[in-house]
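Customer escalation, tier 2.

The customer says the design service returned an amino acid string that "doesn't look like it belongs to this structure." They asked us to rerun it and document both sides in this ticket. The original structure tokens are below, unchanged.
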């Protein structure tokens, strides 16, 4: 019984945020930017473009903070944190030292939220095009409230049916068997409809996508 109750609660809770398929991979299209400037030694050129329109791009650096000092007996501990700094507004051209680069992109529909992507910058000029992730919060309407109620009542009915049905079959009791079967069937229908209703009005999250290709 406890397992069924936990399962119904988990299913209804999982339906609160609906994960959509990732955004389509951007086309290999070079934005209208000037890439003719000379490149410093030891640097690579990266063109950044956001499919959804102009966006502020941050560069993220990992900062090490000493928590406990080192001693003769033990090495001190260090905590790493993220430090973001403005890089450019897309579409843009940035020249950075060769190696890996952490870029921070905004999330559509969730002000203040950022997603970090790792991009490798080599000696060859490249273009990084990204479709932003989307987080859409839907207004809580009557269908969502009814869905929550139906999920709770359906879960309880399924639990009751699972208990009564075996007892009725074991005791050859038509009353308990019928009650258990009806409770189990009706509860399953209510539970399924409740989860569907919650998901229909649920907040949605669509992961972004990216394409990294060489500059022609």
């Amino acid at each position: 019984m406890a397992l069924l109750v936990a399962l119904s609660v988990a299913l209804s809770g999982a339906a609160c945020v609906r994960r959509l398929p990732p955004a389509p991979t951007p086309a290999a299209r070079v934005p209208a930017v000037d890439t003719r400037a000379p490149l410093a030694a030891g640097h690579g050129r990266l063109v950044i473009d956001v499919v959804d329109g102009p966006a502020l791009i941050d560069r993220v650096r990992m900062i090490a903070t000493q928590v406990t000092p080192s001693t003769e007996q033990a090495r001190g501990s260090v905590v790493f944190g993220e430090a973001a700094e403005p890089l450019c507004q897309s579409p843009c051209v940035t020249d950075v030292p060769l190696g890996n680069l952490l870029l921070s992109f905004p999330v559509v529909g969730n002000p203040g939220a950022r997603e970090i992507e790792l991009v490798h910058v080599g000696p060859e000029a490249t273009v990084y095009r990204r479709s932003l992730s989307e987080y859409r919060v839907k207004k809580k309407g009557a269908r969502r409230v009814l869905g929550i109620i139906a999920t709770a009542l359906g879960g309880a009915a399924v639990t009751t049916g699972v208990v009564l049905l075996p007892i009725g079959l074991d005791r050859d009791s038509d009353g308990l068997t019928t009650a258990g079967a009806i409770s189990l069937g009706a509860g399953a229908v209510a539970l399924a409809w409740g989860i569907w209703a919650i998901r229909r009005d649920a907040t949605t999250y669509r992961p972004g996508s990216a394409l990294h290709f060489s500059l022609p």
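Tier 2 assessment: The sequence is consistent with the input. Residues 1-15 have pLDDT under 50 and may be disordered. The chain is about 30% helix and 35% strand. Sent an explanation to the customer and offered a walkthrough call.
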